[in-house]
């Protein structure tokens, strides 16, 4: 792998890691408002994002990088006041996580690409469960028209692959 390709993989891994950090934070909010009927689903997603985060930390370290740290807090994209808005936040988190995993699929090859594709699929399925709506190709074409890739990254980077952070940093 060329140095440029490896740098692209590390950048995509870091963006996915930043998104997983934000999703873990976001699911803390979701869990506080979702209600008893969907609490197990929220906990399962929270656990999945923690596992994804931990795996990405290992991958970044294995490639010689310093894993991006979680922010102390994140600004929510809208007020989460009840179970309906909590479910909407969960769907938004999952769609944004799918977006960064699509970048990792594109930047990767071999086993890493397969793992990224699996993570993309899992996030897309969770997004559908939370929202009740689906898209043909999660994380791809709809990104160009939705503006999902135009926000600030959780880790503070403005690169295209890390710009679809689930939550904006609330810390300077």
End-to-end distance:
36 Å
Would you count the extended β strands for me?
A: 2
H/E element order: HHEHHHE
The Rg value, from CA coordinates, equals: 15 Å
- Low-confidence runs: 144-164
Structural class: mainly alpha
Largest sheet: 2 strands, antiparallel
State mean pLDDT (0 to 100 scale).
84
Number of helices: 5
The portion of residues forming beta strands comes to under 5%
Structure description:
This protein is an all-alpha fold. The chain is 63% helix and 2% strand. A two-stranded antiparallel ribbon has the order 1-2. It is globular.
What is the compact description of this entry?
With 172 residues, the chain is mainly α.
List keywords for this structure.
172 residues, mainly alpha, two-stranded antiparallel sheet, 5 helices, 2 strands, 63% helix
Task: Spell out the blueprint of helices and strands.
Blueprint: H1 3-33, H2 39-62, E1 74-75, H3 83-107, H4 110-131, H5 141-146, E2 168-169
Antiparallel strand pairs: 1-2
Helix pairs in contact: 1-2, 1-3, 3-4
């Amino acid at each position: 792998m060329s140095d440029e390709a490896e740098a692209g993989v590390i950048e995509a891994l870091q963006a996915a890691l930043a998104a997983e950090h934000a999703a873990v934070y976001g699911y803390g909010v979701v869990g506080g408002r979702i209600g008893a009927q969907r609490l197990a689903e929220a906990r399962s997603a929270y656990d999945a994002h923690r596992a994804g985060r931990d795996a990405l930390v290992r991958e970044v370290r294995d490639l010689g990088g310093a894993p991006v740290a979680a922010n102390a807090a994140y600004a929510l994209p809208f007020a989460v006041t009840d179970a309906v808005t909590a479910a909407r936040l969960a769907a938004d988190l999952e769609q944004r996580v799918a977006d960064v995993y699509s970048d990792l699929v594109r930047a990767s090859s071999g086993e890493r690409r397969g793992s990224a594709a699996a993570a993309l699929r899992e996030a897309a399925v969770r997004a559908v469960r939370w929202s009740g709506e689906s898209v043909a190709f999660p994380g791809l074409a709809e990104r160009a028209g939705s503006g999902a890739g135009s926000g600030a990254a959780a880790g503070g980077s403005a690169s295209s692959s890390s710009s679809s952070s689930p939550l904006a940093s609330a810390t300077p």
